[in-house]
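Work Package 3 (structural annotation) set out to generate three-dimensional models for the target panel prioritized at the project kickoff. During this period the team completed the workflow that converts sequence records into discrete structure tokens, so that structures can be stored uniformly alongside our sequence database. As a representative example, we reproduce one entry of 105 residues exactly as it appears in the project archive.
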Amino acid sequence: MPPTHGAGPSADRAMTWPEICQRYPDRWVVLLDTDWIDDHGVEFRTARVVGHHVRRATALAEAQPLTWGVRRVGCFFTGRKRATLPGFAAPRPPAPPTVTIPPSS
């Protein structure tokens, strides 16, 4: 079982989404260097995990040193969804979509 807190930023090897979910179960992961299958879908071949934690904000903060100046990183939850909001009910995609984070000032 992974620790409750992240282990600090690292440059993990590129992994597939199933590998990421297995290595970081029920955690928020920050992905970088995503190898998308196409520009319009949500599936990717591989990505690198540069931050992970049980809290999304902490995973993003942990990854910040490795994502400085990067305009597009993704932060996604590897576990099961906990609640469904009206209008957001959809099956879990095989891979997460991209999240854009504005650069820090």
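DSSP finds two helices and four strands in the chain.
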